[in-house]
Amino acid sequence: MQEIALSPFVATVIFCAACLAGYQYRRVWKAEGPCYQYWIFGILAAAGLLILGFAPIQVPS
Questions:
Q1: Cβ–Cβ contacts within 10 Å for residue 21, how many?
Q2: Where along the chain do its domains lie?
């Protein structure tokens, strides 16, 4: 059975996207923006961090 693992580059891109989504979530929250944007940015940030937390990352040998 083949194990699915993230490359370091893909993991970095996911991390950056999750950070940007978290920053946007905070910006909308502070500005008391539309409620649907809370959900969009919050789910994107949470999904990115959950992927990084549970998916293995390839280690170059």
A1: 20
A2: 8-54
Is pLDDT at 1 greater than 60 in this prediction?
A: no
Q: Average pLDDT of 24-33?
A: 93
Average pLDDT of the residues in 17-39 = 94
**Euclidean distance between CA atoms 35 and 29, whole angstroms:** 9
Hey, is 2 helix, strand or coil? coil
- DSSP single-letter state for residue 4: P
The string of DSSP letters for 7-54 reads -HHHHHHHHHHHHHHHHHHHHHHHTT--HHHHHHHHHHHHHHHHHHHH
